[in-house]
Amino acid sequence: MSDPVIITAAITGAIHTPTMSEALPVTPEQIVDAAVDAAEAGAAIVHLHARNPETGAPDQSPEAFAPILGAIKARADVVINITTGGAPTMTVQERVRPAEHWQPELASLNMGSMNFGLFGMLSRFPNLNHQWEADYLGNHDIIFRNTFQDIGFVLDTLQSAGTRFEFECYDTAHLYNLAHFRDAGKVSGPLLIQTVFGLLGGIGPHPDDVAHMKRTADRLFGDEYVWSVLGAGRHQMPIAAISAAQGGNVRVGLEDSIWLEKGVLAPSSAAQVTKAREIIEGLGRRAATPAEARAKLALKGGDNTAF
């Protein structure tokens, strides 16, 4: 199987909190170093959030990304993907601002509203260092709002910049939502579809769930899309292996899992990239270069961003 695998490294995210792992990057310098290390380990794409360097809370202001983006670009040839997901407690207007301002090659886009349950982690991490962590993780009332209006707003806001999207699909309906926007002429291929498994509120992590999402995407999009997978928590590597064995692509990183293997905290996103790369190479495939990822996804190139 000669088609190279695009590895995305999601560096810090907005789900895990600083108390959970000392490896989770919080400051701009830590996020930059983590992204560069992941690129050197084999990631063609780095998916970025920003955080308040004092508290570690998610920060979706354009200013928070300013010391991160150019520094990564100066040190690594890697595709930079800015989140428009931010945190599920933010408005879509807040969430889109960094991508609108910085005009990256890629931005993530969540394709449907959903319940968002993080409270299961409280039993594993009962002694949190910040009150915001307890309030955030303990919230049983989070709905991650991504209405048709919200999705259309993000698409319209970023259209003129030539930014393309990592379409995050947490359930089957999200694939149909994406097909709706494709049919309406709002998006076109190649579509990078990131199918997400194992987050409470979305589809589960069973291999049958992965097969169901893949079959549905094949039927709806045919050769218009590039398939990638994201397994939450302990499901990260098993689901990456399923995708790699079937010709797909993978996303790893501390945003999605703080674990390297059972009972072992990952020392970095780069360590997870290395482990994913070993799985990929064991299957007779190889990691894609950033140039190969840009060509496969029809990206505008790193010189055409605002950073």
Automatic annotation (TrEMBL):
Its cofactor is Zn(2+). The keyword Iron-sulfur does not apply. It holds the Pfam family BKACE. Keywords: Metal-binding, Transferase, Zinc. The keyword Zinc applies. InterPro entries: Aldolase_TIM, BKACE. One of its GO terms (molecular function) is metal ion binding. This is Uncharacterized conserved protein, DUF849 family. The lineage of its organism: Bacteria, Pseudomonadati, Pseudomonadota, Alphaproteobacteria, Rhodobacterales.
